Amino acid sequence: MNTQEREPREIATRSTGAVILGVLLIILGIIAIAEPVFASVVIDLFLGWLFVIGGIIQFIYAFKSRHTGAAVLKILVSLLAIAVGAFLVLNPLRGVLSLTLIVGIYFFIDGALRVITAFQIKPRARWGWMLLSGILNIILGILIWSQWPFEAAWIIGLLVGISLVVNGTAAILLGTVPQAAAR
């Protein structure tokens, strides 16, 4: 099979993956929108456990590599990760308050990067969806900041849900462009 025959198949495979990813993001987004407080707590607990597990792995690595130098610093960083994770897991509502501010910052930066990416892919069909996704994420970031800390318990779940739906839609729309061209 030559390169010209292989490219449409590879494009179709990547496009199918983008569409599947988009559908999954939309489903998760709808769940988060329907139950925003639950979604906020799930996000907090998930991140908390990631910190705990990551901290334990870092601690094991620091202990095993203690002869390579900076072992004390590595152990302190691992203990900090475990402490942050434990705080998030043991105090999910307080964790949600902190995470809400962090997620607001994330949405703002993610949106700015998506806007930049949209202009980089501008000649591509449907690039405007990436631009719209970026603009909406910037707006979501600003909304989170403006409501923090008063609406922290539910706003993070709702806004993450909205972002997931918008990003999933953008993935589907961008994923269908190459598929149509491959036929």
Automatic annotation (TrEMBL):
Instruction: Write the protein's name.
Output: DUF308 domain-containing protein
- Key words of the record: Membrane, Transmembrane, Transmembrane helix
Matching InterPro entries = Acid_resist_chaperone_HdeD, DUF308_memb
User: Is ATP-binding given among the entry's keywords?
Assistant: no
Gene Ontology cellular-component annotations: plasma membrane
Could you tell me which Pfam families the record lists for this protein? DUF308 (PF03729)
Top-level taxon: Bacteria
| Keyword Plastid assigned | no
Q: Which residues form a coiled coil?
A: none
Residues that span the membrane, as ranges:
12-34, 46-63, 70-90, 96-116, 128-148, 154-177
